[in-house]
SDR family oxidoreductase
Amino acid sequence: MKSAVVTGAGGSLGRAIALRLAQDGYGVALLDLPGDGLDESAAELKAAGARYGVFPIDLRDAAALVRTLAEAESLGALDVLVNNAAIYPATPLLDISLDEYDDVVAVNQRAYFVAAQAAARSMRARRAGSIVNVASITWHGGWEKLASYVSTKGAAVALTRALARELGPDGIRVNAVSPGAFPTKAETIHENPEAYNAFVLDHQSIKRRGTPAEIASVVSFLVGPDASFVTGQTLNVNGGWVME
Ligand SMILES: NC(=O)c1ccc[n+]([C@@H]2O[C@H](COP(=O)([O-])OP(=O)(O)OC[C@H]3O[C@@H](n4cnc5c(N)ncnc54)[C@H](O)[C@@H]3O)[C@@H](O)[C@H]2O)c1
């Protein structure tokens, strides 16, 4: 039985990724803070007839994260890890406190590392597995008021490359997906939604907004057999905004 762990599975993109992986035949472990988001994702997976488990967790707690990844193997040996959870407080650089900075790093960077390390231990024993880290278009060109977030998203790409290099010989592939701007809760950080929508469409070459399912399908590709020779890569999914 194939199994996958998705962090931030109570959020917009995480839910779509979890649903897609469930459709692909994985038993999916939903990791997120306890609350409505996680409950709603669980309800959607249930309605879809998916095989899943709900694992409420604060990802800043590294020991709990390692424990939870082991518990998640009740769904089957771990084949896939998707590091997707993130926080994105919008704060001008000079007002970012060290507490806020540490929090962003703990969720968006340290938890990615801790989960990947624990997953690699399990995957290595079977010489198979795939890890996807979710980055962000913001790291390509920088973004104002998001210095802490943007730096962790650069770290997600760097971690992807380092892990791909080290784990390839063990049969484990590691890639990143870098979303552009998706109309999700994350967008509420922008003061004027209409102006932001117009700004996004102006920059994208595809003149419509992307959907969470269009991130999920790329994750599905990267973890699946069609990407068996792909590792260390960052796939930009941004409607043709940044091209590199
Ligand atoms: N939405 C976009 O346009 C966009 C663009 C670029 C990158 N991304 C990236 O995509 C990923 C998903 O973003 P989203 O739009 O779905 O955001 P979201 O806020 O809907 O989802 C993020 C999830 O992470 C969870 N989370 C936060 N802190 C946590 C903690 N301490 N412990 C456990 N869970 C925690 C939240 O509860 C939430 O459910 C993130 O990595 C984000 O950086 C999103």
About this structure: The longest helix spans residues 98-126. Helices lie at 12-23, 36-47, 62-72, 98-126, 138-141, 147-167, 193-203, 212-223. Residues 8, 10-14, 32-33, 37, 57-60, 84-87, 107, 134, 136-137, 179, 181-182, 184-186 surround nicotinamide-adenine-dinucleotide (CB under 6 Å). The mean pLDDT is 97.
